[in-house]
């Protein structure tokens, strides 16, 4: 009788162990989370979590109009320092093409090396200013700005319209806020804004009423047709291409009048587009570098190494 009991017990023992293992496995499994309905919380009444929301739509960089910045430059002790400051600003501006024009008969090694290392879309040009125009009191950088205009027109003359873009004359002795480039990028024809530290005043600006330019707040020759600094306006690429003869003039042009002489060829005061909060914000400053004191510089190179400054 005892042997019969043990034989039956041994026969049932494996099955009992199998049942215990299966129950233990089922109890250790975590319940799966409920699957959210497709389409987010619109059908469930629950708001979508921050992680589930799609990122805000940003305008693709390729869709932005290109800003073409024409910068005349010439050899001087602070040239590389000022170009470095300008390049550091331009690197932070999307879709900007730098047109750097040297006042020289040939490209200098300093600027050539600088452009190669700048990491910017850049066209490096050169054209000398005739000696007869280098006298004090005569307009400067005329040939260099015209060379930049000629390059721009030649590059785009065979491309079909529309060609979105904005031209800006960016002298290398100015300081620029990044906000300025956001403002000028929407230029339809010619846009304008204030310039700081110019004309013997803390700032000069177009005077705006009801969204239109009606005059000029300036410290020098308010009778100018466009009493504005070179850093105070931008021009649509389409306007530049549709006025192929619009250039900066030498004959008859006086210092401080080149802006007016150029703008008269492409627009009127009534057509100007005020930027920078109706021309009440300064986003560019005419910060000329002070004259460098090199009184202790030896006449002949005495250092054991040659350093580019």
Residue runs with pLDDT of under 50 for 5 or more positions = 30-52
Distance between the termini: 110 Å
Q: What integer is the average pLDDT?
A: 86
Strand order of the largest sheet: 3-2-1-4-10-6-11
Our estimate of the beta-strand percent is 15-25%
Number of discrete helical segments = 8
Shape: globular
Order of helices and strands: HEHEHEHEEHEEEEEHHEHE
Largest sheet: 7 strands, mixed
Which structural class should the secondary elements be placed in? Answer: alpha/beta
DSSP strand tally? 12
Percentage of helical residues?
25-40%
Radius of gyration computed on alpha carbons? 34 Å
Features:
alpha/beta, 3-stranded antiparallel sheet
3D structure, described in words:
- There is one protein chain.
- This protein is an alpha/beta fold and 309 residues long.
- The protein is built from eight helices and twelve strands.
- The strands form three sheets. The protein has a seven-stranded mixed sheet, with helices on both faces. A three-stranded antiparallel sheet has the order 7-8-9, with no helix packed on it.
- Helix 2 runs parallel beside helix 3.
- The protein is globular.
- 29% of the residues are buried.
How would you summarize this macromolecular structure in one to three sentences?
By secondary structure, this protein is of the alpha/beta class. Helices cover 28% and strands 18% of the residues.
Layout of helices and strands, plus pairs?
Elements lengths: L1 H27 L37 E8 L5 H12 L5 E7 L6 H10 L3 E5 L15 H15 L8 E5 L5 E2 L1 H7 L5 E3 L2 E4 L2 E9 L2 E6 L15 E4 H6 L15 H6 L9 E2 L1 H4 L4 E2 L24
Parallel strand pairs: 1-2, 1-4, 2-3, 6-11
Antiparallel strand pairs: 4-10, 5-12, 6-10, 7-8, 8-9
Helix pairs in contact: 2-3
């Amino acid at each position: 009788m005892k042997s019969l009991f043990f034989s039956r017990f041994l026969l049932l023992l494996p099955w009992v162990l199998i049942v215990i293992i299966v129950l233990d496995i089922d109890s250790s499994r975590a319940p799966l989370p409920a699957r959210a309905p497709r389409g987010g919380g619109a059908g469930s009444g629950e708001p979508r979590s921050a992680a589930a929301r799609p990122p805000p739509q940003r305008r693709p960089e390729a869709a932005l109009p290109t800003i073409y910045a024409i910068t005349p430059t010439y050899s001087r002790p602070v040239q590389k320092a000022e170009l470095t400051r300008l390049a550091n600003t331009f690197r932070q501006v999307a879709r900007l093409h730098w047109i750097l024009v040297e006042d020289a008969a040939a490209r200098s090694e300093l600027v050539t090396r600088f452009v190669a290392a700048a990491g910017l879309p850049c066209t490096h040009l050169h054209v000398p200013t005739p000696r007869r125009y280098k006298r004090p009191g005569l307009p400067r950088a005329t040939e260099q700005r015209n060379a930049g205009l000629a390059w721009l027109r030649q590059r785009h003359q065979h491309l079909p319209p529309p060609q979105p873009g904005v031209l800006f004359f960016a002298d290398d002795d100015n300081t620029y806020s990044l906000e300025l480039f956001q403002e000028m990028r929407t230029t339809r024809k010619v846009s304008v804004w204030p310039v700081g530290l110019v004309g013997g005043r803390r700032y000069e600006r177009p005077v705006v009423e009801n969204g239109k330019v009606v005059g000029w707040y300036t410290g020098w020759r308010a009778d100018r047709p466009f009493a504005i600094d070179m850093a105070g306006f931008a021009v649509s690429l389409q306007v530049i291409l549709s006025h192929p003869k619009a250039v900066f003039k030498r004959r008859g042009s006086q210092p401080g009048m080149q802006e007016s002489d150029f703008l008269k060829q492409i627009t009127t005061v009534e057509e100007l587009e005020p930027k920078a909060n109706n021309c009440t914000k300064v986003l560019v400053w005419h910060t000329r570098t002070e004259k460098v004191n090199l009184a202790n510089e030896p006449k002949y190179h005495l250092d054991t190494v040659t350093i580019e400054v």
